Amino acid sequence: MTRKSLKTYISISFFSGLFFFIFFSSEKSLNSFLISLSIATMYTFLMAVPNGLLNNYLNHRFSWVNQTKRRTIVGVIATIVLNVFLTYLCNGINFVLIQKVTTWDIFFSDKYNYANWFMINFALMISAFLHAKSFMEELKKVTRKEVVEQKIIAKSANAQFESLKNQLDPHFLFNSLNVLSALIDENQDQAQKFTLSMSKIYRYVLDQKDKELVSVEDELEFAKTYAELLKTRFEDSVEFQFNVPKEDYQLKVVPLSLQLLLENCIKHNFATSSKPLVMKIYTENGFLCIENNLQTRELPKDRDGIGLSNIVQRYSLLTKENVFIEKSDDYFKVKIPMLTEQQKINTMNIVNPSNESLAYEKAARRVKELKGFYGNLISYCIVIPFLVIINLMTSPKELWFYWPMLGWGIGLVAHGMNVFAIGKNWEERKIKEFMEKDQYKS
């Protein structure tokens, strides 16, 4: 028991004892007040401590968030059993041992059924309040944790994606300068032509490197220009074959992917006039394929670049579609997925911080619904006992508190069903069902 809980129990005991002393005690004396305070303290500690221990055990055993139904069912059964036992124990101690107004035989007869029934309902209402408070605290904790985790994931993914894109700029420049350096020694006219073409290509690199996706058409045009540069360098030692239908031009790929893959082919294979390196670019079942005949040459490990791994990592951050690599004795092929406009919108959400806001708003709406229900439940637990007390004090022979208890109780059950059973989950399922039907029809 924590110090805060102890202070709470003492406060409840004092004010409960004072309440019963003022409104139910016929003798207004210090002795009578101490008796009322003792009885209230006994009820508070014998009822609250076991319920608190039960609540803590159930919270440890069953998660409110991940095992809501099981936690609710077990909690209801255990709370009813425990409070029935504690009510009879406390009432027995009060009436038989403290006030000595009856015996144990009479206490368990029909005469005290109403008193026991009233205390059981009162205890269950207080227990419901405690369980609702426990649920809200855990839900708030989990919601805050999930929001923080989503922020971390989004920021991490965004930072990782930016890091990968920033690798392209110096990587392309470094390799292009290597080619230019070789050309200067071999053919200065070609070197000058290469420099002019490289400036045009580098402008494309600067324009596209900050984009997540570009059209296949733009990427092909850039790849053809880059292929011309490679032809300038290697002449008839390399050959390029482009065979991409125009209907695929508006699909999306990650920028500079073709340039990196063509560069990868040159780096890992030797090319001569007698054995030219043939690179084919074509589409196949929604994938853009880059295939080359295999003429492998050994490379130092420190020359392993970022080309293929960069593309794989960028796609993994943007979509669930995979990059496929095929290798045989004769050829090496990389297949990169071509994404539709709709897939582009969906993939942007992975690294777009606005998705984090949408998730937060959805979680906030759900928390608001739950707070509304538990606010309703807590109000019920406070107001109904108060009405019962007023009814018993003013007209004990005419019991009218049943009607607000029943009416409000039915409304509370309906509210709970809307929140937990047939509320938003049912709406979301139906919305998804109708959207799928409309999409199928279209």
UniProtKB/TrEMBL annotation:
<protein>
    <submittedName>
        <fullName>Putative regulator of cell autolysis</fullName>
    </submittedName>
</protein>
<dbReference type="InterPro" id="IPR025698">
    <property type="entry name" value="2TM_dom"/>
</dbReference>
<dbReference type="GO" id="GO:0016020">
    <property type="term" value="C:membrane"/>
</dbReference>
<dbReference type="InterPro" id="IPR010559">
    <property type="entry name" value="Sig_transdc_His_kin_internal"/>
</dbReference>
<feature type="domain" description="2TM">
    <location>
        <begin position="361"/>
        <end position="436"/>
    </location>
</feature>
<keyword id="KW-1133">Transmembrane helix</keyword>
<dbReference type="Pfam" id="PF13239">
    <property type="entry name" value="2TM"/>
</dbReference>
<feature type="transmembrane region" description="Helical">
    <location>
        <begin position="9"/>
        <end position="26"/>
    </location>
</feature>
<feature type="transmembrane region" description="Helical">
    <location>
        <begin position="400"/>
        <end position="422"/>
    </location>
</feature>
<feature type="transmembrane region" description="Helical">
    <location>
        <begin position="73"/>
        <end position="97"/>
    </location>
</feature>
<feature type="domain" description="Signal transduction histidine kinase internal region">
    <location>
        <begin position="159"/>
        <end position="237"/>
    </location>
</feature>
<keyword id="KW-0472">Membrane</keyword>
<dbReference type="InterPro" id="IPR050640">
    <property type="entry name" value="Bact_2-comp_sensor_kinase"/>
</dbReference>
<dbReference type="GO" id="GO:0000155">
    <property type="term" value="F:phosphorelay sensor kinase activity"/>
</dbReference>
<feature type="transmembrane region" description="Helical">
    <location>
        <begin position="32"/>
        <end position="53"/>
    </location>
</feature>
<feature type="transmembrane region" description="Helical">
    <location>
        <begin position="373"/>
        <end position="394"/>
    </location>
</feature>
<dbReference type="Pfam" id="PF06580">
    <property type="entry name" value="His_kinase"/>
</dbReference>
<keyword id="KW-0812">Transmembrane</keyword>
<feature type="transmembrane region" description="Helical">
    <location>
        <begin position="117"/>
        <end position="136"/>
    </location>
</feature>
